[in-house]
Amino acid sequence: MDKKNQQETTSLLTKASDTITIFMCGDVMTGRGIDQILPYPGDPILHESYMKNAKGYVELAEEASGRIQQPVSFSYIWGDALDELERITPDVRIINLETSITTSDDCWKGKPVHYRMHPKNIPCITAARIGYCSLANNHTLDWGYSGLTETVETLQRAGIAYAGAGQNLREAETPAIVEIAGKGRVIIFSCGSETSGIPSQWAATENRPGVNLLKDLSDKTVWYISEKVKEIKQQRDIIIASIHWGSNWGFEIPQEQIRFAHKLIDHAGIDIIHGHSSHHVKGIEVYKDKPILYGCGDFLNDYEGINGYENFRGDLGLMYFAYMDPSSRKFIHMQMIPTQVKRCKINRASTYDAIWLRDILNREGKRFATRVELHEDNTLTLQWG
Prior knowledge:
This protein has 385 residues and is an alpha/beta fold. The protein is built from 10 helices and 20 strands.
């Protein structure tokens, strides 16, 4: 898309007052080291082989990038992302919350890593006006069923919608409904796969709390989801499937995931697939005018200063802004803002890093006939078809 066409697209989007703009990103980890720099740090004791105190992750970040004046403000962790959100003003703001919000000490035995944030630090989520948190991931029950209960209660008190976990299967499967005045609704289903590291014991049942864990990626699972969508779907609804799946590292996208994503669009009426779990961005597909984000990458974490997997650039992320037409449920446009985690906050990525992300997305998008264009302001736009 050349500069003239980009300007024309922006103009059309501005005029289309009923266009729904959706902000999405990957994993947001406000626990552990991030929790320690916030105004109300929780108990820093960890049960990891690598680190025994969460303050150690803050020290690693400071060694890598410089001192962090503590405590930081609740808005600090969002850094430059706040200006971008204010500039674009999306109708819905969606994250995968990769953290239990609790003071529980009931860590899940046998699990190598546990994330938790003190409930009094919940303003760090509302500071960015996040409207929805996906909970169907491999850290929601890190601090047991009591930790899950406190997580859900904290989100409810803060007025933040969520899905993907609950006190039983019915609650875990129930989607979130976000009403957008004068435009329509965005309905978000959240689910996870064992391939992302979610323990099988975490699956919610009729009489046990847990997460909405997919049994598999079969046709039967697609049919089951389609029935859930039919129960709630109305005209002008944009339906999102937020899925925690796949390994932490590696650009390869299994054929099973591609097939499942396509069938969710073909048979379950899904309009956007918001995939996460990988610690780095992965390829993007547009299938029948529906965007599929196979892996959004980490958006915020406390990995700064930890060596290993540097070739994947896990410090880089993207702010995904999808523009949808609710009348036709058609995908119109996607803008992406390159970011980098530094000093435990989100920063605009440098030109060099934006070029790196562009080249990776173009390389990985070849199999899907998608590519991205980098503009003078270091933003990216998606091309397809």
